[in-house]
Automatic annotation (TrEMBL):
UniProt keyword annotations, A-Z: Phosphopantetheine, Phosphoprotein
UniProt name for this protein: Acyl carrier protein
Lineage: Bacteria, Pseudomonadati, Nitrospinota/Tectimicrobiota group, Nitrospinota, Nitrospinia
Keyword Transmembrane: no
GO annotation, cellular component aspect: cytosol; membrane
Length: 87
């Protein structure tokens, strides 16, 4: 997956978890929790969706890498580089 595909996959997950939020206005370098209304359960839902869709585990020690869109993409893209979106 390219970085843009990873970003789109994250956007898809966010739109399902926070359907009332305007995710199209997300600043890639701002903290996601500051830009959209995500609580700790929503954050765990994101981690679960990543596991479900891409069969990857994000260890708790790496949660900090999911703080911003750009850090998510930079963290996930090497893990997802050769994977395709699960259907």
């Amino acid at each position: 997956m390219t970085k843009e595909e990873v970003r789109q996959a994250i956007m898809d997950i966010l739109s399902e978890i926070a359907p009332d939020e305007d995710i199209n206005s997300i600043n890639d370098d701002g903290k996601l929790r500051d830009q959209i209304d995500l609580d700790s359960m929503d954050f765990l839902d994101i981690v679960m969706e990543l596991r479900k869709r891409f069969n990857i585990e994000v260890p708790e020690k790496d949660y900090e890498f999911l703080a911003t869109m750009s850090s998510c993409v930079n963290y996930l893209q090497p893990l997802l580089g050769k994977r395709q979106l699960a259907s």
